[in-house]
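[recover] target loaded
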């Protein structure tokens, strides 16, 4: 595809996003939702980041998930400057590799970002991936927006933060010690991550029920882009709505939401 034509399409789509100067944006999702040719992926990342930055101005911030959940129970060495994210998407890696990018310090659930105040958003986070002073919580203190590149089923990472806050019967906090390289030294770092109980009965419905309810609550606005949509909402709005949904039915994430916890461990 003509890169100039793609640039114009991206500019038009970003202009329709309801973003204000000085906003903080959390972007997640999969570019293949748009049906973009592989040869145009890098152009998309370049132009999309450019126009987002232009939209929010020099006071704004852009952050993406750069988690490395493949480091759980492994002997790998996590290097915040060099370790690639795992299954977080091409745009996340593009932002992580920007010259002025900053990465949060949780070795399993990190975020990377750029912007004048990005260290206030991503810095000084706790050892808990989803708890107090996590990035998911820090985002609530800013004028934050959530953008999903394509359908948001697999991009709503703040769901785990809400699961932690409300309390769900299928997940618990697990301790990990991850080997981390910092200042040319390797140390084991303690951290917590909310993980699922191991049971064949605990199966996700791909967030379909949660997304359906979020849409019925008019959580998102969407902008057409090529074969898909870019979804956007206020970060506080999606967190508030997720609290309402999960508080009402704590097992809604599960494919079989009728099963009781006491039966989870019967094989």
């Amino acid at each position: 595809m003509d890169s100039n034509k793609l640039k114009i399409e991206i500019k038009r789509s970003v202009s329709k996003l309801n973003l204000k100067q000085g906003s903080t944006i959390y972007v997640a999702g999969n570019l293949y939702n748009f049906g973009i040719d592989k040869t145009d992926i890098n152009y998309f990342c370049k132009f999309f980041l450019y126009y987002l930055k232009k939209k929010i101005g020099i006071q704004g911030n852009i952050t993406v998930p750069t988690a490395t959940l493949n480091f759980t129970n492994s002997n790998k060495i996590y290097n915040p400057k060099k370790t690639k994210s795992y299954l977080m998407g091409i745009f996340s890696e593009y932002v992580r590799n920007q010259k002025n990018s900053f990465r949060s310090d949780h070795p399993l659930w990190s975020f990377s970002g750029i912007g004048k105040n990005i260290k206030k958003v991503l810095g000084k986070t706790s050892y808990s991936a989803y708890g107090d002073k996590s990035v998911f919580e820090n985002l609530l203190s800013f004028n934050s927006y959530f953008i999903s590149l394509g359908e948001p089923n697999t991009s709503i990472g703040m769901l785990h933060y809400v699961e932690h806050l409300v309390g769900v019967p299928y997940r618990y906090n697990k301790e990990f010690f991850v080997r981390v390289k910092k200042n040319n030294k390797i140390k084991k770092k303690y951290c917590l991550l909310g993980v699922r109980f191991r049971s064949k009965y605990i199966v996700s419905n791909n967030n379909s029920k949660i997304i359906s309810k979020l849409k019925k609550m008019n959580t998102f606005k969407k902008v057409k882009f090529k074969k898909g949509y870019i979804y956007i909402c206020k970060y506080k709005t999606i967190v508030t709505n997720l609290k309402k949904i999960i508080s009402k039915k704590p097992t809604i994430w599960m494919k079989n939401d009728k099963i009781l916890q006491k039966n989870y461990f019967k094989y």
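[recover] notes: The two ends are 52 Å apart (CA to CA).
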